[in-house]
Write a structure and sequence with these properties.
17 helices, 409 residues, 4 domains, 5 strands, single chain, alpha/beta
Length: 409
Amino acid sequence: MPNDPTRVEIIASRERRRRYSADYKLRLVEETMQPGMTVSAVARLHGVSPSLLFQWRRRMAEGGKAAIQADGEVVAAGRLRELEGRIRDLERLLGRKTMEVEILREALSAAPGKKARLAVAVAATGRFPVKVVAETLGVARSNLVEQVRRGAKPRGRYRRQGDDELLAAIRQLTDARPTYGYRRITALLNRARRASGAEPLNHKRVYRLMLRGQLLLQRHGTQRPIRAHEGKVIAPASNLRWSSDGLEIPCWNGEVVRLAFAIDTHDREVMAWIATTGGVSGEMIRDLMLACVERRFAALRAPYPVQWLADNGSAYAAHDTRDFAVALNLIACFTPVRSPESNGVSEAFVKTLKRDYARINPRPDAAAVLQQLPGWIEDYNESHPHKGLRMRSPREFIRAQSQPAPCPV
Protein backbone atom coordinates (compact mmCIF):
# COMPACT_ATOMS: atom_id res chain seq x y z
CA MET A 1 0.00 0.00 0.00
CA PRO A 2 1.22 3.60 -0.62
CA ASN A 3 0.93 4.58 3.10
CA ASP A 4 2.63 1.42 4.44
CA PRO A 5 5.07 2.56 7.21
CA THR A 6 7.40 -0.37 6.46
CA ARG A 7 7.85 0.81 2.84
CA VAL A 8 10.64 3.29 1.99
CA GLU A 9 10.51 5.18 -1.34
CA ILE A 10 13.77 6.75 -2.60
CA ILE A 11 13.46 9.76 -4.95
CA ALA A 12 16.63 9.95 -7.08
CA SER A 13 15.67 13.10 -9.04
CA ARG A 14 12.99 15.76 -9.27
CA GLU A 15 9.66 14.08 -9.86
CA ARG A 16 7.75 15.29 -12.87
CA ARG A 17 4.09 16.12 -12.75
CA ARG A 18 2.05 12.94 -13.02
CA ARG A 19 -0.32 12.50 -15.93
CA TYR A 20 -3.48 10.41 -15.46
CA SER A 21 -5.48 8.88 -18.26
CA ALA A 22 -9.21 9.39 -18.59
CA ASP A 23 -9.91 5.69 -17.90
CA TYR A 24 -7.88 5.83 -14.70
CA LYS A 25 -9.78 8.89 -13.51
CA LEU A 26 -13.16 7.20 -14.27
CA ARG A 27 -12.17 4.04 -12.41
CA LEU A 28 -11.22 5.99 -9.29
CA VAL A 29 -14.41 8.05 -9.41
CA GLU A 30 -16.50 4.87 -9.74
CA GLU A 31 -14.73 3.40 -6.67
CA THR A 32 -15.71 6.43 -4.59
CA MET A 33 -19.37 5.80 -5.46
CA GLN A 34 -19.35 2.21 -4.18
CA PRO A 35 -21.07 1.53 -0.82
CA GLY A 36 -18.80 2.02 2.18
CA MET A 37 -16.07 3.90 0.21
CA THR A 38 -15.12 7.52 0.69
CA VAL A 39 -13.03 9.93 -1.34
CA SER A 40 -10.27 9.99 1.28
CA ALA A 41 -10.07 6.21 1.49
CA VAL A 42 -9.83 5.75 -2.31
CA ALA A 43 -7.23 8.53 -2.50
CA ARG A 44 -5.05 6.87 0.16
CA LEU A 45 -5.50 3.52 -1.52
CA HIS A 46 -4.19 4.74 -4.90
CA GLY A 47 -1.74 7.38 -3.67
CA VAL A 48 -3.42 10.47 -5.08
CA SER A 49 -4.45 13.71 -3.47
CA PRO A 50 -7.98 13.65 -1.97
CA SER A 51 -8.65 17.18 -3.28
CA LEU A 52 -7.67 16.09 -6.79
CA LEU A 53 -9.94 13.06 -6.63
CA PHE A 54 -12.79 15.20 -5.28
CA GLN A 55 -12.27 17.58 -8.24
CA TRP A 56 -12.52 14.66 -10.66
CA ARG A 57 -15.75 13.54 -9.03
CA ARG A 58 -17.28 17.04 -9.20
CA ARG A 59 -16.40 17.39 -12.90
CA MET A 60 -17.87 13.95 -13.56
CA ALA A 61 -21.10 15.07 -12.00
CA GLU A 62 -21.19 18.30 -14.02
CA GLY A 63 -19.99 17.24 -17.45
CA GLY A 64 -19.46 13.54 -17.53
CA LYS A 65 -16.50 11.85 -19.18
CA ALA A 66 -15.73 14.80 -21.48
CA ALA A 67 -15.10 17.10 -18.52
CA ILE A 68 -12.74 14.65 -16.90
CA GLN A 69 -10.84 14.05 -20.14
CA ALA A 70 -10.50 17.81 -20.86
CA ASP A 71 -9.51 18.48 -17.23
CA GLY A 72 -11.38 21.81 -17.30
CA GLU A 73 -14.76 23.46 -16.83
CA VAL A 74 -17.53 22.43 -19.23
CA VAL A 75 -19.71 25.15 -20.73
CA ALA A 76 -23.25 24.54 -21.88
CA ALA A 77 -23.86 24.40 -25.64
CA GLY A 78 -26.17 27.44 -25.56
CA ARG A 79 -23.61 29.48 -23.64
CA LEU A 80 -20.92 28.38 -26.11
CA ARG A 81 -22.97 29.54 -29.10
CA GLU A 82 -23.61 32.87 -27.38
CA LEU A 83 -19.88 33.41 -26.76
CA GLU A 84 -18.96 32.48 -30.33
CA GLY A 85 -21.50 35.01 -31.65
CA ARG A 86 -20.04 37.75 -29.49
CA ILE A 87 -16.53 36.90 -30.76
CA ARG A 88 -17.69 37.19 -34.37
CA ASP A 89 -19.29 40.59 -33.65
CA LEU A 90 -16.10 41.83 -31.99
CA GLU A 91 -13.98 40.63 -34.92
CA ARG A 92 -16.20 42.49 -37.41
CA LEU A 93 -16.05 45.64 -35.26
CA LEU A 94 -12.26 45.37 -35.00
CA GLY A 95 -11.93 44.99 -38.76
CA ARG A 96 -14.14 48.02 -39.39
CA LYS A 97 -12.16 50.15 -36.94
CA THR A 98 -8.87 49.02 -38.47
CA MET A 99 -10.11 50.04 -41.92
CA GLU A 100 -11.21 53.43 -40.55
CA VAL A 101 -7.73 54.00 -39.09
CA GLU A 102 -6.07 53.13 -42.41
CA ILE A 103 -8.42 55.48 -44.29
CA LEU A 104 -7.62 58.24 -41.80
CA ARG A 105 -3.89 57.76 -42.24
CA GLU A 106 -4.16 57.76 -46.04
CA ALA A 107 -6.23 60.95 -45.93
CA LEU A 108 -3.67 62.61 -43.66
CA SER A 109 -0.79 61.69 -45.94
CA ALA A 110 -2.65 63.08 -48.96
CA ALA A 111 -3.89 66.23 -47.21
CA PRO A 112 -2.12 69.45 -48.28
CA GLY A 113 -2.21 70.95 -44.76
CA LYS A 114 0.20 70.25 -41.94
CA LYS A 115 -0.52 67.33 -39.64
CA ALA A 116 0.91 69.17 -36.65
CA ARG A 117 -1.94 71.68 -36.62
CA LEU A 118 -4.52 68.92 -36.86
CA ALA A 119 -2.82 67.00 -34.04
CA VAL A 120 -2.88 70.10 -31.79
CA ALA A 121 -6.58 70.62 -32.49
CA VAL A 122 -7.40 67.00 -31.62
CA ALA A 123 -5.21 66.87 -28.49
CA ALA A 124 -6.54 70.21 -27.21
CA THR A 125 -10.04 68.72 -26.84
CA GLY A 126 -8.79 66.46 -24.03
CA ARG A 127 -10.77 63.45 -25.21
CA PHE A 128 -7.73 61.37 -26.17
CA PRO A 129 -4.29 60.86 -24.61
CA VAL A 130 -1.59 62.96 -26.23
CA LYS A 131 0.61 59.91 -26.79
CA VAL A 132 -2.11 58.10 -28.71
CA VAL A 133 -2.82 61.19 -30.84
CA ALA A 134 0.89 61.61 -31.63
CA GLU A 135 1.34 57.95 -32.59
CA THR A 136 -1.82 57.86 -34.70
CA LEU A 137 -1.07 61.03 -36.65
CA GLY A 138 2.67 60.41 -36.84
CA VAL A 139 3.93 63.57 -35.11
CA ALA A 140 6.44 64.15 -32.32
CA ARG A 141 4.86 63.85 -28.88
CA SER A 142 7.22 66.38 -27.25
CA ASN A 143 6.41 69.04 -29.82
CA LEU A 144 2.70 68.26 -29.56
CA VAL A 145 2.75 68.61 -25.77
CA GLU A 146 4.56 71.94 -26.01
CA GLN A 147 2.12 73.34 -28.57
CA VAL A 148 -0.91 72.22 -26.58
CA ARG A 149 0.55 73.74 -23.43
CA ARG A 150 1.28 77.19 -24.84
CA GLY A 151 -1.50 77.23 -27.42
CA ALA A 152 -0.98 77.06 -31.17
CA LYS A 153 -0.66 80.58 -32.47
CA PRO A 154 -0.57 81.19 -36.23
CA ARG A 155 2.86 82.38 -37.25
CA GLY A 156 3.26 85.10 -39.85
CA ARG A 157 5.49 84.93 -42.88
CA TYR A 158 9.16 84.65 -42.08
CA ARG A 159 11.18 87.72 -43.02
CA ARG A 160 14.88 88.33 -42.87
CA GLN A 161 16.96 91.44 -43.21
CA GLY A 162 17.97 92.03 -46.80
CA ASP A 163 15.09 90.03 -48.31
CA ASP A 164 13.76 92.98 -50.30
CA GLU A 165 17.13 93.69 -51.97
CA LEU A 166 17.65 90.00 -52.69
CA LEU A 167 14.16 89.68 -54.17
CA ALA A 168 14.92 92.59 -56.52
CA ALA A 169 18.11 90.82 -57.69
CA ILE A 170 16.17 87.59 -58.18
CA ARG A 171 13.54 89.40 -60.22
CA GLN A 172 16.22 90.81 -62.53
CA LEU A 173 17.60 87.32 -63.17
CA THR A 174 14.19 85.78 -63.77
CA ASP A 175 13.32 88.56 -66.19
CA ALA A 176 16.46 87.76 -68.17
CA ARG A 177 16.10 83.97 -67.81
CA PRO A 178 12.39 83.18 -67.36
CA THR A 179 12.90 79.40 -67.72
CA TYR A 180 15.29 79.11 -64.77
CA GLY A 181 14.04 77.59 -61.54
CA TYR A 182 15.12 78.48 -58.03
CA ARG A 183 18.18 76.21 -58.02
CA ARG A 184 19.70 77.72 -61.17
CA ILE A 185 18.85 81.21 -59.95
CA THR A 186 20.64 80.33 -56.70
CA ALA A 187 23.68 79.18 -58.68
CA LEU A 188 23.82 82.46 -60.63
CA LEU A 189 23.44 84.53 -57.44
CA ASN A 190 26.16 82.57 -55.64
CA ARG A 191 28.50 82.91 -58.61
CA ALA A 192 28.22 86.69 -58.43
CA ARG A 193 28.51 86.69 -54.63
CA ARG A 194 31.65 84.55 -54.67
CA ALA A 195 33.22 86.95 -57.15
CA SER A 196 32.52 89.85 -54.77
CA GLY A 197 33.61 87.93 -51.64
CA ALA A 198 30.11 87.69 -50.10
CA GLU A 199 28.65 84.65 -48.35
CA PRO A 200 26.74 82.21 -50.59
CA LEU A 201 22.97 81.94 -50.30
CA ASN A 202 20.93 78.93 -49.27
CA HIS A 203 18.66 77.66 -52.03
CA LYS A 204 15.80 77.40 -49.50
CA ARG A 205 15.94 81.15 -48.92
CA VAL A 206 15.82 81.78 -52.66
CA TYR A 207 12.86 79.40 -52.94
CA ARG A 208 11.03 81.26 -50.16
CA LEU A 209 11.57 84.63 -51.81
CA MET A 210 10.61 83.37 -55.26
CA LEU A 211 7.47 81.86 -53.76
CA ARG A 212 6.63 85.19 -52.15
CA GLY A 213 7.21 87.02 -55.41
CA GLN A 214 5.33 84.37 -57.47
CA LEU A 215 8.44 83.70 -59.56
CA LEU A 216 8.53 79.91 -59.29
CA LEU A 217 8.08 77.77 -62.38
CA GLN A 218 4.88 75.82 -62.84
CA ARG A 219 5.22 72.14 -62.05
CA HIS A 220 4.80 69.79 -64.98
CA GLY A 221 2.73 66.65 -64.50
CA THR A 222 3.80 64.63 -67.52
CA GLN A 223 4.62 60.99 -66.98
CA ARG A 224 7.39 59.35 -68.93
CA PRO A 225 7.10 55.78 -70.18
CA ILE A 226 8.99 53.39 -67.95
CA ARG A 227 11.84 51.62 -69.71
CA ALA A 228 14.87 50.04 -68.08
CA HIS A 229 18.25 51.47 -69.09
CA GLU A 230 21.10 49.80 -67.25
CA GLY A 231 23.91 51.55 -69.15
CA LYS A 232 25.60 54.76 -68.04
CA VAL A 233 26.10 57.49 -70.64
CA ILE A 234 28.07 59.91 -68.45
CA ALA A 235 31.82 59.30 -68.66
CA PRO A 236 34.03 59.31 -65.53
CA ALA A 237 36.44 61.85 -67.07
CA SER A 238 36.65 64.30 -69.95
CA ASN A 239 37.63 63.23 -73.49
CA LEU A 240 36.56 59.61 -73.00
CA ARG A 241 33.14 59.72 -74.68
CA TRP A 242 31.73 62.41 -76.96
CA SER A 243 28.07 62.52 -77.87
CA SER A 244 26.51 64.02 -80.98
CA ASP A 245 22.96 64.69 -82.10
CA GLY A 246 20.88 67.14 -84.10
CA LEU A 247 17.77 69.26 -83.67
CA GLU A 248 15.50 71.59 -85.58
CA ILE A 249 14.56 75.14 -84.59
CA PRO A 250 11.40 76.36 -86.35
CA CYS A 251 11.08 80.04 -87.26
CA TRP A 252 7.98 82.20 -87.26
CA ASN A 253 7.98 82.54 -91.04
CA GLY A 254 8.02 78.76 -91.56
CA GLU A 255 11.76 78.33 -92.12
CA VAL A 256 13.69 75.69 -90.19
CA VAL A 257 17.24 75.86 -88.88
CA ARG A 258 18.93 72.47 -88.41
CA LEU A 259 21.72 72.19 -85.87
CA ALA A 260 24.24 69.39 -85.26
CA PHE A 261 26.56 69.48 -82.27
CA ALA A 262 29.07 67.42 -80.27
CA ILE A 263 29.20 67.47 -76.47
CA ASP A 264 31.51 65.88 -73.92
CA THR A 265 29.57 63.46 -71.70
CA HIS A 266 31.62 64.36 -68.62
CA ASP A 267 32.04 68.14 -68.53
CA ARG A 268 29.00 68.84 -70.83
CA GLU A 269 30.84 71.41 -72.96
CA VAL A 270 29.58 71.83 -76.51
CA MET A 271 32.90 71.45 -78.30
CA ALA A 272 31.72 72.14 -81.86
CA TRP A 273 28.49 72.72 -83.77
CA ILE A 274 27.21 73.42 -87.27
CA ALA A 275 23.94 75.01 -88.41
CA THR A 276 22.24 75.08 -91.78
CA THR A 277 18.86 75.73 -93.34
CA GLY A 278 19.19 72.58 -95.44
CA GLY A 279 19.86 68.99 -94.45
CA VAL A 280 22.75 67.81 -92.29
CA SER A 281 25.07 65.79 -94.52
CA GLY A 282 27.77 63.27 -93.70
CA GLU A 283 30.45 65.77 -94.73
CA MET A 284 29.21 68.19 -92.07
CA ILE A 285 29.41 65.46 -89.42
CA ARG A 286 32.97 64.65 -90.49
CA ASP A 287 33.91 68.31 -90.19
CA LEU A 288 32.32 68.26 -86.74
CA MET A 289 34.49 65.29 -85.71
CA LEU A 290 37.66 66.99 -86.88
CA ALA A 291 36.77 70.23 -85.10
CA CYS A 292 36.30 68.36 -81.81
CA VAL A 293 39.67 66.58 -82.09
CA GLU A 294 41.46 69.83 -82.94
CA ARG A 295 39.81 71.70 -80.05
CA ARG A 296 40.44 69.10 -77.36
CA PHE A 297 43.84 67.73 -78.43
CA ALA A 298 45.27 70.44 -80.76
CA ALA A 299 46.09 67.69 -83.24
CA LEU A 300 44.66 65.96 -86.29
CA ARG A 301 44.25 62.64 -84.47
CA ALA A 302 43.26 61.72 -80.92
CA PRO A 303 46.18 60.36 -78.88
CA TYR A 304 43.98 57.54 -77.55
CA PRO A 305 40.64 56.02 -78.60
CA VAL A 306 37.63 58.22 -77.82
CA GLN A 307 34.05 56.98 -78.15
CA TRP A 308 31.80 58.89 -80.55
CA LEU A 309 28.19 58.23 -79.50
CA ALA A 310 25.40 59.09 -81.94
CA ASP A 311 22.05 57.82 -83.17
CA ASN A 312 21.42 55.81 -86.34
CA GLY A 313 20.99 58.79 -88.67
CA SER A 314 22.27 58.40 -92.20
CA ALA A 315 24.86 61.15 -91.72
CA TYR A 316 26.38 59.28 -88.75
CA ALA A 317 26.02 55.71 -90.07
CA ALA A 318 27.54 56.42 -93.52
CA HIS A 319 30.61 54.36 -94.45
CA ASP A 320 32.67 57.48 -95.14
CA THR A 321 31.81 58.88 -91.69
CA ARG A 322 32.78 55.68 -89.92
CA ASP A 323 36.05 55.39 -91.89
CA PHE A 324 36.84 59.01 -91.07
CA ALA A 325 36.18 58.28 -87.37
CA VAL A 326 38.71 55.43 -87.48
CA ALA A 327 41.26 57.78 -89.05
CA LEU A 328 40.74 60.24 -86.18
CA ASN A 329 41.05 57.41 -83.59
CA LEU A 330 37.36 57.73 -82.71
CA ILE A 331 35.23 54.68 -81.91
CA ALA A 332 31.82 55.03 -83.56
CA CYS A 333 29.02 53.92 -81.20
CA PHE A 334 25.33 53.92 -82.07
CA THR A 335 22.30 53.96 -79.77
CA PRO A 336 19.63 51.23 -79.96
CA VAL A 337 16.55 51.90 -82.05
CA ARG A 338 13.85 53.94 -80.25
CA SER A 339 16.08 54.52 -77.23
CA PRO A 340 16.77 58.26 -76.85
CA GLU A 341 17.79 57.68 -73.21
CA SER A 342 20.92 55.90 -74.48
CA ASN A 343 22.10 59.30 -75.75
CA GLY A 344 20.78 61.16 -72.72
CA VAL A 345 23.46 63.88 -72.53
CA SER A 346 22.71 65.07 -76.06
CA GLU A 347 18.96 64.83 -75.52
CA ALA A 348 19.30 66.94 -72.36
CA PHE A 349 21.18 69.63 -74.29
CA VAL A 350 18.50 69.63 -76.99
CA LYS A 351 15.85 70.24 -74.32
CA THR A 352 17.94 72.97 -72.67
CA LEU A 353 18.62 74.81 -75.93
CA LYS A 354 14.97 74.80 -76.93
CA ARG A 355 13.58 75.67 -73.50
CA ASP A 356 16.10 78.22 -72.20
CA TYR A 357 17.12 79.91 -75.46
CA ALA A 358 15.00 79.25 -78.55
CA ARG A 359 11.57 79.63 -76.96
CA ILE A 360 12.27 82.91 -75.15
CA ASN A 361 14.08 84.72 -77.97
CA PRO A 362 12.63 86.15 -81.20
CA ARG A 363 12.80 83.83 -84.22
CA PRO A 364 11.36 85.81 -87.12
CA ASP A 365 13.41 83.99 -89.76
CA ALA A 366 16.38 81.66 -90.23
CA ALA A 367 18.87 84.53 -90.56
CA ALA A 368 17.92 85.86 -87.11
CA VAL A 369 18.30 82.42 -85.52
CA LEU A 370 21.68 81.82 -87.19
CA GLN A 371 22.83 85.18 -85.88
CA GLN A 372 21.81 84.35 -82.29
CA LEU A 373 23.11 80.77 -82.19
CA PRO A 374 26.77 81.62 -81.35
CA GLY A 375 25.63 83.66 -78.35
CA TRP A 376 23.34 80.89 -77.17
CA ILE A 377 26.08 78.24 -77.31
CA GLU A 378 28.61 80.54 -75.64
CA ASP A 379 26.17 81.41 -72.85
CA TYR A 380 25.45 77.72 -72.33
CA ASN A 381 29.15 76.87 -72.03
CA GLU A 382 30.03 79.83 -69.80
CA SER A 383 26.96 80.52 -67.65
CA HIS A 384 24.38 77.70 -67.70
CA PRO A 385 24.41 75.83 -64.33
CA HIS A 386 24.26 72.04 -64.40
CA LYS A 387 22.90 69.90 -61.60
CA GLY A 388 25.33 67.10 -62.54
CA LEU A 389 28.24 69.59 -62.27
CA ARG A 390 27.16 70.82 -58.81
CA MET A 391 25.39 73.82 -60.33
CA ARG A 392 28.45 74.99 -62.28
CA SER A 393 28.68 75.78 -65.97
CA PRO A 394 30.73 73.49 -68.27
CA ARG A 395 33.63 75.94 -68.61
CA GLU A 396 33.55 76.67 -64.88
CA PHE A 397 33.70 72.93 -64.20
CA ILE A 398 36.64 72.48 -66.59
CA ARG A 399 38.55 75.31 -64.93
CA ALA A 400 37.92 73.79 -61.51
CA GLN A 401 39.27 70.45 -62.76
CA SER A 402 42.47 72.02 -64.07
CA GLN A 403 43.24 73.75 -60.76
CA PRO A 404 45.40 71.81 -58.25
CA ALA A 405 43.69 70.51 -55.15
CA PRO A 406 44.25 72.61 -52.00
CA CYS A 407 46.66 71.30 -49.39
CA PRO A 408 44.71 69.73 -46.50
CA VAL A 409 47.38 70.71 -43.94
